[in-house]
Amino acid sequence: MWIWAAVPLIFVALVFRESTLYRGIVSDPDVDYVRILAPCAVASIAGFLLVDLMRRASTPWYGLPFLLMASFAAPAIAIGWLNGAMRELIAVVVGAAITAAAGRGGSGAAGFLLLGITLGTPLVAGALLTLLFTLVSRFLADLPLRSRDAWRELVANLGAMVLWLVVALGGYIAIRTSFGLGTARMSAARAVPHWLPVVAALLGAFLATAAHLALAARARRNQANERHGLKIWLLAAVCGAAFVHSPDLFGLTGHRLMYDHIRPMLRSAHMLSSPDMVIAKYRVSIPFHDHKTHKGLPMPDGQPSYITVILPDEFGLSSKGFLPSVHVYRRDITLQQTSTWWTDRRKLLEDAKAAEPDQDAVVRFAGSRGSIGLRSDQYPEVDVQLSDFDPAVSTGTAEQALRRFLRERLQRLNG
Fold first, then answer.
1. CA distances from 104 to 97, 99, 100, 108, 291 (A)
2. Where are any strands of DSSP class E within 137-290?
3. Sign of the CA dihedral with 285 first, then 308, 322, and 274 last
4. String of DSSP letters for 257-294
5. What is the pTM of this model?
6. Which of 74-83, 291-300, 397-406 ranks highest by mean pLDDT?
7. What is the C-alpha end-to-end distance of the chain, expressed in Å?
8. Is pLDDT of 292 > 60?
9. In whole angstroms, what is the distance from residue 67 CA to residue 232 CA?
10. Separation of alpha carbons 384 and 375, rounded Å
11. What are φ and ψ of residue 304, in 5° steps?
């Protein structure tokens, strides 16, 4: 019993430490509170599901990895979906409420509608997710779904869900209203003690977890101690679906396995399409990677406005802490496809080229990381930037690596 109660609390403590380890200056204390509390909620539910299913069903050793991964993946997906659905729906309701209030001369009906939807949306969505989690967990443990025990468990889980929402929304609103963060936000945020969102999130997470355990223990005190086999096949299916949906749920190892091995293998076997890395009249000869190659917004002709790739190690600029990248920009790119960050740098290239029309323009851009730009008549449709290399590298060395990359990896298309 003590392990059943201790594991969720330990999981919360571990995740809380990770979520605050690299926490910087707080500019949004109310949002920071929710950002710390959300992973704690995932850890609490994951710890509860893990130990609870092991306690209620016979779990073979080979089923433990699937149980552990599914216990984390399921609440992470559910809470992520709940957060996203709340943001989108509340944004729509806020707009509708403001329009209704303006049309009725500022009557209170729109305000009550907004309040009702704001509170009702997470309750309804949370109730549906709680029902799903209760039924699936009992099905995994081979317990009857339609029984008084199942009903008591559902009521206990619903009580815990309501408490988690009260802790999340109540803490968010309390911090926001107590320090007047709605107006003059930046100056008001400075008045919030740096420790307040952290301590409040920790206490709220422990309170909600302890209450959930107490409710669950009370609901099960008269249940028969039935032990059946755990449905490992369903856990494996859940893990597989979660891995395809979001490999990041399983940490850095899951991310690398999917994007550095599985997807490239499928592309080499022609089972997964590879986007064409073509910009203007050139093809960038770098294998497409979901997170190491990027395409900008399309131009009117349908081609991307820019392409960004990681500079391969063979060009000699990669080093510890620095991962150089090459950006190929179309010269006719506009602010609709980029920002002033690049247009300002492009202006420096234009000025350098205008000063010496017969020479290629090479400009070293200011910044904490090395970055150079190149405009050459050899590539009249594009400008090129090499960025994020060690600032100790000289401009000449960086230019040689960039020119070699262009010779070997930027191929002009026929016609």
1. 11, 9, 6, 9, 49
2. 228-229, 278-279, 282-284
3. negative
4. IIIIIIHHHHHHTTSS-----EETTEEE-S---TTTEE
5. 0.68
6. 397-406
7. 74
8. yes
9. 8
10. 7
11. -65, 155
